[in-house]
């Protein structure tokens, strides 16, 4: 199985989740950061798309990529990285992050949590995070079990 994991990350946590996912998917798995441009996915039979969520929205480069990418016939997994705690709101963020036709095609999709990294944030982001999340400390909510479960359902080994 040849797999491409394509991600959109601002402060590195979606990238870190994607990196951890590669070892769990195994086989021939390649990482692509959308900040480096749009990859050619034609050689890959399986594709994972992952994006960070800011203010309820996926990153704009993932949104733009989803508008043009052709994935028919491929096994597809979708994930979002965010710090929303309410399961209903997490589900809404996931539902809004990718177009309907890709969600319909997806073999698996998940909200994979994230991190608050104050050292990576700009002043406005620190202010918003302190106000909304009521913390000024780094928080690491990356859920390794959820990453493993996502990889297993993608590869059909669950
Ligand atoms: C200014 C700001 C706004 C955010 N808004 C949301 C949000 O609406 N929903 C959510 O689930 N997470 C939100 N987050 C949390 C980020 O999604 C989380 O920090 C994530 O790990 C960032 O991923 P990245 O490092 O790949 O950019 C926000 C974080 C910041 C700093």
UniProtKB/TrEMBL annotation:
Coiled-coil regions listed: none
Gene3D superfamilies from the UniProt entry: 3.40.50.360
Any single Pfam family the record assigns to this protein: Flavodoxin_5
GO biological process, one term: heme biosynthetic process
Alphabetical list of InterPro entries matching this protein: Flavodoxin/NO_synth, Flavodoxin_dom, Flavoprotein-like_sf, Protoporphyrinogen_IX_DH
Any GO MF annotation of the entry: FMN binding
Domain Flavodoxin-like: start-end pairs: 3-155
Protein name: Flavodoxin-like domain-containing protein
Protein source organism: Ancrocorticia populi
